[in-house]
Write a structure and sequence with these properties.
413 residues; Beta-Lactamase; 2 domains
Length: 413
């Protein structure tokens, strides 16, 4: 039982008035204990459901009487400096309650037919580490990535779906440069929002209400004599153009971009009207990142994967590999225990795909070849694919084949 359930039980037994501030704080407290990234407060038919996203998966936290819904909405709106008197319209806000010691909350309110749904994104500086050696990259990828970061100029992009570890990886990249150069280089960032304050980094946070957007911020920043520029995300044509230009004019630029695949970054940027020859000249590396849930060490044991997973493996890797893995008892999964809240998983680990843009890759891009050919060129030059990285974690007993198939199977050639 968690603090929220304990508090609701006391209310039910004692019949006292609810302290709505305490109730909301208990929800946040319980989420921090579970190391959740998001809190979902959802009005259902006859109850208010609270779910949290842990290791990328939603799980139930507590059920709250529906009568408390308006009070909880009002309290969270006040915390996040929203218009508490306005209902049934989308609102966004931010909160940094002092009782949570630096934890920041990004709040989104969305109207549904049963009332307002609230999602809170949690930024907990204490729960994150920005040491590049602790990201979980395999040694080969880490060494290659460090070589890319050591280049004085060029554009480095990180890609992956929401919640795949891009932000952590980009902060770790800046942390590596800080550790190497200390305060001898000028590093600046434009972010939305600033999630972690970094020493010796001039960080700027967007403010669209004052027309302080990525484009306006970067245009001004280019006159600030930066050597390393971190851009939170490339979202539009103008931001992409400035990032590519900066990478060609003596700056090291690190940013993130949403793309279905690592090699698909080129197509995404070309669709943003960036000329292929500019990409080939400025882009020096693309790092695809995914996070896989790892088996709980407390309840991990040998298992036989589901038939659909074995069939997929046989198609991609061959019957011999599958039979050898079964015979050697390489497949492991967690069966659930108190340590992992009966999920079978505890924590997440990264799998990566680093495309170093060399001459072979540049030639394919310059000739406007399809994404698949860009991927093939990178693989011929030694790039480990996301699927290969996921399969390595499976055969090491770190995760299940079902988890790997769900997160990285779409990246297979």
């Amino acid at each position: 039982m968690n603090k929220t359930e304990d508090y609701l039980k006391e209310l039910a037994e004692g019949g006292g008035a609810v302290d709505i501030s305490a109730l909301v704080n208990h929800i946040v407290d319980d989420s921090l204990v579970l190391k959740a990234s998001d809190i979902h407060i959802e009005p259902w038919e006859d109850v208010l459901g609270v779910r949290v996203r842990c290791s990328g998966q939603l799980q139930e936290l507590v059920y709250i009487p529906k009568e408390y819904h308006p009070l909880i909405c009002g309290r969270i709106k006040v915390m996040a400096n929203m218009a508490s008197h306005i209902k049934d319209v989308p609102q966004d806000g931010k909160a940094a309650p002092p009782e949570f010691n630096g934890v920041q909350l990004r709040v989104s309110v969305f109207p549904t037919v049963r009332g307002e749904k609230i999602v809170i994104r949690i930024f907990n500086p204490k729960a994150r580490t920005f040491d590049i050696n602790s990201l979980g990259f395999d040694e080969e990828t880490l060494n290659k990535y460090v070589k890319v970061l050591n280049k004085p100029t060029g554009l480095v992009l990180l890609t992956g779906p929401t919640g795949s570890g891009k932000t952590t990886a980009i902060y770790a990249s800046i942390g590596y440069l800080l550790e190497k150069h200390q305060n001898t280089v000028a590093i600046a960032s434009v972010e939305d929002p600033v999630e972690q304050n970094l020493m010796w980094v001039n960080q700027a946070q967007l403010n669209p209400a004052q027309d302080f957007t990525y484009v306006s911020a970067l245009r001004s920043l280019m006159r600030q004599d930066p050597e390393v520029i971190m851009i939170g995300e490339i979202r539009d044509v103008d931001t992409a153009t400035i990032a590519v230009t900066a990478g060609m004019t003596g700056h090291l630029v690190i940013s993130t971009i949403h793309s279905g695949t690592t090699s698909g970054v080129f197509a995404r940027l070309i669709n943003m009207q960036i000329e292929p020859f500019l990409l080939a000249s400025s882009l020096i590396g693309v790092l695809g990142v995914r996070l896989l849930r790892l088996n709980c060490e407390g309840c991990k044991a040998v298992y036989t994967p589901e038939e659909f997973a074995l069939a997929h493996l046989r198609t991609s890797e061959g019957d011999a590999m599958v039979e050898d893995a079964i015979e050697q008892e390489l497949f492991r999964c967690g069966f659930g225990c108190d340590t992992c809240s009966n999920t079978g998983y505890a924590g997440r680990g990264a799998v990566t795909e680093l495309m170093v843009v060399n001459e072979d890759v540049r030639d394919v891009v310059m000739n406007r070849r399809p994404t698949r050919e860009i991927q093939e060129a990178a693989v011929k030059c030694g790039m480990q694919t996301l699927w290969e990285g996921g399969l390595r974690r499976v055969t090491n007993g770190e995760t299940t084949i079902e988890e790997a198939l769900m997160k990285v199977a779409s990246e297979m050639l």
